[in-house]
């Protein structure tokens, strides 16, 4: 005769939580884009690793827009960046799915989340290896690009600082975010004027818009979570 299953107390009733972001209706193509954009912003706001990828991608973009690389190298770098973003977004989706299935410790839940996180890790390590190999293979070009590198560092590091500030989860005064957007946009413009690759300039502009949108969404969520009065 099989022994009765051990008693486990019923889970505490879940307190209703406000939606992470306002759900927008609609089923058209435009609505699909908006939902996808909301998902991207939500991942950037709530996933620490996504914020790390975003800042790292800006650094890759600065290298790509400062040093003249071949088409193949550019395509590989952009593809790696996109692949990491894709993996992190999928990892985040899986985490939500697991949390939806169980709010308790569960071995299968742990395996699922760990496997999804491993997928991102493998891609991130691969990207670093590819990035270093590309720089080593183009070392002559890199060595000849001293002034360009100095300019990318002078303009690019403050831009990276602006993006980092925008994605940081800590509460801060509104003027800090506004200043980061204004200064970042000016730096982007200056970098675009000297860029050797319009594709990487566009990538950095896209990442900057993503960081600014994440900052705006975070402020909205923080304002919504604040007790009234
Ligand atoms: N329900 C669960 N049951 C068992 N282990 C869990 C559960 N939820 C999370 N874990 C473990 O905790 C780790 C972190 O899970 P969490 O949901 O906090 O994701 P996270 O910190 O956002 O992860 P990541 O660093 O991949 O973004 C998981 O990789 C897993 O090992």
TrEMBL record:
It holds the Pfam family DAGK_prokar. One of its GO terms (biological process) is phospholipid biosynthetic process. The keyword tRNA processing does not apply. It is a multi-pass membrane protein. It comes from the Bacteria. InterPro entries: DAGK, DAGK_sf, UDPK. GO terms for cellular component: plasma membrane. It is found in: Cell membrane. One of its GO terms (molecular function) is kinase activity. Mn(2+), Zn(2+), Cd(2+) and Co(2+) support activity to lesser extents. Its main location: membrane. Substrate binds at residue 88. ATP binds at residues 95, 113-114. The chain crosses the membrane at residues 52-69, 75-94, 115-137, 149-168, 175-193. The keyword Kinase applies. PANTHER family: DIACYLGLYCEROL KINASE (PTHR34299:SF1). Belongs to the bacterial diacylglycerol kinase family. This is Diacylglycerol kinase. The lineage of its organism: Bacteria, Pseudomonadati, Myxococcota, Myxococcia, Myxococcales.
């Amino acid at each position: 005769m099989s022994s009765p299953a051990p008693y486990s107390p019923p889970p505490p009733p879940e307190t209703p939580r406000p939606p992470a972001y306002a759900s927008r209706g609609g089923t058209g193509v435009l609505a699909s884009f908006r939902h996808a954009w909301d998902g991207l912003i939500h991942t950037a706001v709530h996933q620490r690793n996504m914020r790390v990828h975003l800042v790292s991608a800006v650094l890759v973009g600065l290298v790509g827009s400062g040093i003249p690389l071949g088409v193949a190298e550019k395509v590989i770098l952009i593809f790696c960046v996109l692949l990491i973003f894709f993996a992190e977004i999928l990892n985040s989706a899986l985490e939500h799915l697991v949390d939806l299935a169980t709010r308790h410790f569960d071995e299968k839940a742990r395996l699922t989340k760990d496997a999804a996180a491993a997928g991102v890790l493998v891609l991130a390590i691969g990207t670093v290896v590819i990035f270093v190999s590309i720089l080593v293979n183009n070392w002559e070009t890199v060595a000849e690009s001293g002034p360009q590198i100095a300019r990318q560092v002078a303009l690019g590091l403050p831009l990276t600082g602006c993006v980092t500030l925008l994605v940081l989860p800590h509460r801060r005064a509104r003027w800090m975010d506004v200043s980061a957007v204004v200064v970042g946009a000016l730096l982007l413009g200056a970098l675009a004027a000297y860029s050797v690759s319009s594709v990487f300039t566009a990538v950095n502009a896209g990442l900057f818009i993503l960081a600014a949108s994440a900052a705006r969404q975070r402020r909205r969520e923080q304002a919504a979570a604040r007790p009234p009065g």
